[in-house]
């Protein structure tokens, strides 16, 4: 659960993997893949058409998008063995869950007992007077500000998520085909936080497991084409509790932030592509935005940097570049 100590902060930092890299931590996908030897990574590679082209976390997550959509399309063909197809979908889910666990272990080992040296240029924008929306899992940003919302989980929680950005789901797609949408994954992560922090439940308790399973059923039926009909509501344990949580969460995905006060947005190592919809919703609420500051590393491709500028241009004409 996130509680910002100062609601009316004027600087908002958007932090991505490049932020950790700029502090000397090799938490990128390429390093993870190269230095991790596990069967699930080989299994993931066997699913991909061209695994060698994946060298960033964005491209890894985009492959989740490609694979899940491809498997759904295959399930709709007449020659498809539907049961075999669903087993493949289940195998893919198992593989990604195992990669989650491996990634936690890898990042913990990569960041453990290594000194973190702050960057004076970053300190000008990321400090006690700043709020950070962090897409990383590490606590690197905590050296600059205590006011951080971990969008995709954290090492401290031992709970992280990987997935693809919003897409228009096919009307006949099943929950299993859209399981890795960040829309679902973020909602489920916040629900687990709610169970732990608010209801004081532990992950090994029966009630915790039942509630997590019930949210999954809620998401499944809501996107089944049938919807949450009255007879469906009756078979979902703790339906009223879950329905109340979901409605509150969707109205305020990140609580306690007054975006109307934000005047400066700072981009620190986030490639934008992986979370466009989420970021666009935030920007649309920043009605008094005066400047966007994009931190850039030497050697960054011009095309990639231009895409960032193009993304922010509709929201702010004053875009500034700072090199790490």
Keywords summarizing the entry:
324 residues; alpha/beta; Rossmann fold; 3 domains; 6-stranded parallel β-sheet; 12 helices
Your description of this structure?
The protein is of the alpha/beta class. The chain has three domains: 1-24 and 119-151 and 254-324, Rossmann fold; 26-113, no CATH class; 168-252, no CATH class. Helix content is 45%, strand content 10%. It has helices at 17-22, 29-35, 39-47, 57-75, 82-111, 120-123, 182-198, 206-222, 230-235, 239-251, 276-283, 302-312; strands spanning 11-15, 130-134, 148-150, 153-154, 159-160, 264-268, 291-296, 319-323. It starts with 10 loop residues before the first strand and ends with a strand.
Extract low-pLDDT stretches.
none
Computed Rg? 20 Å
Helix content: 40-55%
Based on secondary structure, the structural category is: alpha/beta
Distance between the termini: 31 Å
- Averaged pLDDT: 92
The total of helices stands at 12
What is the CATH top level name of the largest domain?
Alpha Beta
Major sheet characteristics: 6 strands, parallel
| CATH fold field value of the largest domain | Rossmann fold
Named CATH architecture of the largest domain? 3-Layer(aba) Sandwich
SSE order, one letter for each helix or strand: EHHHHHHEEEEHHHHEHEHE
**What is the count of distinct domains?**
3
Strand content: 5-15%
Shape: globular
Task: Give me the side-by-side strand order of the main sheet.
Answer: 3-2-1-6-7-8
């Amino acid at each position: 659960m996130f509680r910002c100590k100062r609601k009316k902060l004027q600087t908002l930092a958007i932090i991505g993997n490049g932020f950790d890299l700029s502090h000397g931590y090799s938490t990128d996908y390429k390093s993870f893949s190269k230095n991790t030897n596990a069967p699930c990574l080989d299994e993931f590679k066997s699913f991909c058409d061209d695994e060698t082209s994946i060298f960033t976390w964005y491209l890894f997550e985009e492959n989740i998008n490609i694979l899940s959509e491809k498997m759904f399309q295959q399930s709709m063909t007449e020659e498809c063995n539907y049961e075999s197809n669903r087993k493949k979908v289940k195998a893919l889910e198992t593989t990604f869950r195992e990669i989650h666990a491996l990634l936690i272990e890898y990042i913990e080992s990569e960041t453990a007992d290594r000194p973190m040296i702050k960057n004076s240029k970053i300190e000008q924008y990321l400090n006690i007077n700043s709020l950070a929306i962090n897409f990383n899992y590490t606590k690197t940003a905590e050296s600059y500000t205590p006011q951080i919302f971990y969008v995709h989980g954290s090492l401290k929680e031992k709970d992280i998520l990987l997935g693809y950005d919003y897409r228009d789901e096919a009307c006949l797609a099943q929950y299993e085909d859209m399981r890795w949408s960040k829309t679902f994954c973020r909602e489920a992560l916040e629900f687990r936080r709610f169970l732990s922090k608010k209801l004081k439940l532990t992950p090994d308790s029966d009630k915790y497991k039942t509630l997590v399973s019930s949210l999954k059923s809620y998401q499944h039926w809501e996107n089944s084409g049938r919807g949450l009909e009255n007879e469906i509501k009756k078979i979902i344990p703790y339906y009223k509790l879950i329905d109340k949580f979901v409605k509150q969460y969707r109205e305020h995905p990140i609580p306690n932030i007054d975006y109307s006060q934000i005047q400066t947005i700072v981009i620190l190592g986030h490639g934008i592509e992986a979370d466009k919809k989420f970021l666009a919703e935030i920007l649309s609420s920043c009605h008094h935005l005066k400047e966007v500051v994009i931190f850039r590393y030497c050697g960054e491709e011009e095309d990639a940097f231009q895409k960032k500028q193009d993304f922010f241009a509709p929201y702010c004409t004053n875009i500034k570049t700072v090199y790490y």
